[in-house]
Amino acid sequence: MKTIGLIGGMGWESSAEYYRLINKQMRERLGALHSAKILMYSVNHQEINELESRDRWPELLEMMIESSRKLEKGGADFILICCNLMHKIADQLQNAIHIPLIHIVDATSEEINAAGLTTVGLLGARAVMEGAFFKNKLEAAGLNVLTPDEGTKEFINDVVFNELAFGKIIEESKGRTLNIIKTLKENGAQGVILACTELPMLVMQEDSILPLFDTLMLHVKKAVSFALED
Description:
This protein has ten helices and seven strands. By secondary structure, the protein is of the alpha/beta class. Helix 1 links the parallel strand 1 (3-8) and strand 2 (37-42). The longest helix is centred in the N-terminal third of the chain and has 19 residues, at 12-30.
């Protein structure tokens, strides 16, 4: 079994969910008392958020490189960044380290393709919904990507950073998000990507009119499979 390195803390609630789900899936795969070999380096979310808000990505890259090298030195065989938005610098990070980085978009697009879907809605932080780094990678996998209008993007972004980042689950926001999913369906979406690791705390599959692709869960699934490969 390979040792999984996690860069967490963005925010810590979803990082804790990574830890829980990786171990849960490992036990389901191997049985008995099996659990995963995991190292986590948890960053300060406030520092990360301040740099993101000022678009200071070179500094964020240096922080991610430092975090990755600490995990690598500690014995991690590969790395996951427990945050969708931070994958904006995933390619540069991979070039700076010596162990594999499991990309959250690769894990997601593989699952969508396996489901036979061609058109998906994308919900997450504004920078994820608008950023070429996420959409281009999905399109390179043969997928058509739909995003909401400007006002809706602002609403989702506000929910992510001012509610979910603080662990707040507000029913009004949940209802509005489910209506957004309905609108995406009317516009041709066959499924919806929850491209924020906290969004699954707000909306679940049983609530949705469309299949939901939880990037956190799919990232975990790919990580467990990779950890168990020979």
